[in-house]
Design a protein that fits this description.
Number of domains: 1
Largest sheet: 5 strands, parallel
Number of helices: 6
CATH architecture: 3-Layer(aba) Sandwich
Radius of gyration: 14 Å
CATH superfamily: HAD superfamily/HAD-like
Strand order of the largest sheet: 5-4-1-6-7
Helix content: 25-40%
Structural class: alpha/beta
CATH topology: Rossmann fold
Number of strands: 7
C-alpha cells in the first residue's frame, strides 16, 4: 500500500497555545500537548486519504513525548498510523531514510521548507502548506491526481 508522510507540528497540530512555554520543560508536558488544536480540515482530509493510503506521522519532538503524540492524534480523530519523532532535522532525515525501506511513499505533507527536504530524500510528491492553516481541501485531490498520473 502506498503511504503518505505527514508532519505533525504546524501541519496538523496547532501548537501556538503553548508557544509562551518554548524553552521550558513545560512546553512538552502531557497536559499542554493534549491541549493543542488540530489544524482545520486536517482530520477530515487525512481520514479520506487513509481509505486509500497508509498514514505515517513524523514530528520534531523529543522521543519521550511519543505516547502523548499518539494520544493527541487519537483524541482529535486522526487516522491510525505509525508515529516517529526526532528533534533535529539530521535525525529526521535518518528516520525517513530508514522508513523509505519500510513504506512506499507517494507524498509528504509539511509546513516548512525543511519538510520538503525530507520529501526529497524519499522521492515523493512534496506538499508544503501554510503553517497552522493549510488549505486541506485541495490536498487529497492533488495526491490522488499525482498517484493516477504516476
Amino acid at each position: 500500500m502506498k503511504a503518505i508522510l505527514v508532519f505533525i507540528d504546524g501541519t496538523i497540530c496547532d501548537t501556538r497555545s503553548r508557544h509562551h512555554l518554548i524553552g521550558t520543560p513545560d512546553f512538552y508536558r502531557r497536559e499542554e500537548i493534549l491541549g493543542d488544536q488540530a489544524v482545520p480540515g486536517s482530520v477530515q482530509c487525512l481520514q479520506e486519504l487513509a481509505q486509500r493510503y497508509e498514514i505515517v506521522y513524523i514530528g520534531a519532538r523529543p522521543s519521550f513525548t511519543l505516547s502523548d503524540a499518539e494520544e493527541w492524534l487519537e483524541q482529535k480523530g486522526f487516522p491510525r498510523g505509525s508515529v516517529y519523532l526526532a528533534e533535529t532535522q539530521e535525525d529526521r532525515l535518518s528516520l525517513v531514510r530508514a522508513m523509505d525501506e519500510r513504506f512506499d511513499f507517494i507524498a509528504g505533507i509539511g509546513d516548512r521548507w525543511d519538510d520538503n527536504e525530507l520529501h526529497s530524500e524519499i522521492g515523493c510528491l512534496s506538499i508544503i502548506l501554510q503553517e497552522y492553516e493549510g488549505k486541506w481541501d485541495t490536498v487529497a485531490q492533488r495526491i490522488m491526481r499525482h498517484h493516477r498520473e504516476r
